[in-house]
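Standup notes
- HV: blocked on the assembly model, inputs below
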Amino acid sequence: MSMMSTMRTPSAPRPRASRASGSAALPVGVLVAVLLPLILMPIAAVFVFAFRGGLKDFVSALTAEDAQFALRFSLLIAFLTATVNAVLGTFAAYVLAKYRFPGKRPLTIAVNLPVAIPTVVVGTSLLLLWGPIGLLGKVLAPLGISPMFALTGVLLAHLFVTFPYMLGAVKPLLDELEVTYEEAAYTLGAGKWQTFRYVILPALRGGLFSGTLLTFAHSLGEFGATVMVSGNLRLRTQTAPLYIFAQFEAGNVAQANAVAAVLAVLSFAIFFFLFRWSGQAGNGGQGR
Amino acid sequence: MSIVLDRLVKRFDGQSVVSRVSLEIEDGELFVLLGASGSGKSTVLRLIAGLATPDEGRIHLRGRDVTDLTPQERGIGFVFQNYSIFRHMSVAANIEFPLKIRKVPADERVRRREQLLDQVGLGGLGGRYGHQLSGGQQQRVALARALAHEPNVLLLDEPFGALDVKIRGQLRRTLREIQRTLKVTAILVTHDQEEAFELADRVGLMDRGALLEVGEPERLYQRPRSLFVATFLGAGTVLVGRARGGQAHLGDLALPIPPEVEHEENARVRVLIRPEQVALSAEPPAPGSGAKVLGEGTVLERSFLGALRRLRVRLPPIAGTRQAAPDRFGEEGLLVDVVLPAEEEPPGPEVWVGLRGWHILAPPRPRLLVCSLAAVPLPPALPRLVEAIDGVPTLLAVSADEEEAEALRAALREHAREDGDHSLGIFDGAELLVRRGDPLAEIAAEQAQSVYDFVVLAGGAGPVFDGLLDRLSTPLLVLRGDWRPTTPRFLICTAVGEPGKSDVRVGGWLARRLGAEVTLLHVALGGLGAAGGRDPQPWVQTHLDRGVATLRALEVTSQGKIRHARTPAEGILAEAAEGGYDLIVMGRHGPRHGPLFRPKAADITLRILAGIQTSVLIVPAEE
């Protein structure tokens, strides 16, 4: 009853804060109790196990040549993936939002499909396509080009798997943008490129930012497709998640956990940014 | 001349949304394009802006042909209904945007921006963003932004449509002020008649893609030409009477028709009475006072509007008078709309309705349904006909399959284009209908829309005539060949009492428009062989004399002629063969009653259509 009245009082200084007051203790308690084993404890466990042997062990585990390579390689792949998909995804969103053409619906479904396909399946099909005996790989092999089990292969897998994130972040913004927005720019004298650069692109900023970060984060953690196409070659194609898995299988839990902790911290940082950003956008501060 | 539109045509999916719009707008004028949604007014604006490209016609801005230029090159300002303020830019950045694009130095940009912000009444709000402003404020920003680069022409597409009434009024005043100060030529599109009248130097009214009438608001309101314009611009009563002796007759009431108003003697004439031109009184005015009294009626509805009082009075039906407006579904009497100043009360529930003023509408332009059948080219007689009667043609083509339909469509366009270049331009922008299916059924269905005054058929398609004749409700003109260059000759075949006088009337009307001479023919049966050249009955001569008199009233020269023959068809065919006529006019009854009762071979109309090569006009008998 008190909750209702505070919510309705227009002078209530913080209606959002007041919602958690009063009889909230029980539902919050239940929620935390459920989430503890599901989410909160696993998060904590990463750090607990990483530092079990003390800071010194943690540092030496991280500075191992394999671990260093795996982390750098992962960051490089994530960076490349995010860059390529930022451009490609925005372009795809623009084309799909702006133009009408036959086959638009199937194409829209196709470009969104990668989130729904199991990543291992993606890996296999990439191998069947680009591998040494694959459909395209067969043609490329005599030319000395073999994308699989190399950086190119990993990048191809990541581009595929993360493609929909950029599209999903940018297309709704474009759909929402009225046609007259562009037309207004034209009548004011701006050419097509100027209109895109100064009018459309800035209006997409929020989506570009969150889409890029999401792509980066997913690429950093990608496992299923990567393990298939990379061949898991240490110091050549081993990404951080693959390294963690390999070390764990070999029984080097501390090594695995050290890298896992770094990945976790990176993810936290990225999501912290995303939350801050969307919080700002939600408060009406669309841009400064 | 700031803006010149020359016969603009825009089609979407083969349908014209803008048909042959021509318009000239003076420097510094504020022109308002008014029309219902879907009338094509916004498309005209987008064509001027370059946001859409016309299928035909040219656009000149300040003497420069801009038809093929991009919007960027046209030097225009455009204000959209939804403001379209760039939301990631501040108000200041929005207004500076067109200047930045043009690389205007920063200090000049700031000076111009501050000046514009001041003019639109937003001084000091340059740092705000779109979402921090009200709708009215956003539209003020949009206006300032559209004017920043000092465009030649300002185009506004329903700029106040999304705002509430009070804000709308304020913005109208601001717009008028700025437009006057800057002396910028402007076109504003709206569906709001009040807004149009308040703002416009001149108003152009659009309907279904056509620009119907252009004029100053007062002229358009008081002296519209067409029924559509009369009823679109404000309330009013339109009664249809008959013109006789230079007066419009509504029952016993005769209203003088001003000499400058074109009208046809003895034809229907439409009288517009605005609500404020009606005078109500409790008693009938004294005879001889010269007051124009329509009759006595009862007050049906009344409402209070603040400054005014609106009434609707119902009058009993008046002989020979029809109502065209207001709509009176399920009503037998005549409805007259009245407006009184609020301080005046109607004299009682029963009132005498007098007229203080009235206006005669121009006769409507006849509409032609021109049917083109696959292989038959349009006859050369058609353009002259359309021009002579100032008709509005609709081209209907019917074909069996889609491929043929596409070919027909192209051919019709080609007809239209050729004609536009070499001759009169009458089909330029004419409506094109291409249908698939049975020609007869499609023509009959289209004719049944009863918006047409004539159905025109290119000659040579027997079975179509046959079926169409039975369903005829509109005069059918079978066109073949061409008219002779001067004074065409018409033969009107008439019979006493039947099929009525409509053939003389319609034939005469056409003869007057084409400047034709008429021969009125009566075929006396019995023939030479049987009774040896019997004199026709005296009433036949009387009938012919009456016909000649009717035609004289239509200012058509004619002569009566009696011919002996065994059957009417024979007589007509013989006369047609001798006389060298351009057109044979015949009356026509309703459907034949079964093949047994009246065999096809005996059908006069069909026999004549088959027997001669000249054009034939078949006029259905009046109901």
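- HV (later): unblocked. The CA atoms of residues 102 and 212 of chain A lie 29 Å apart. The longest helix of chain A spans residues 65-98.
- Next: hand off to the docking folks.
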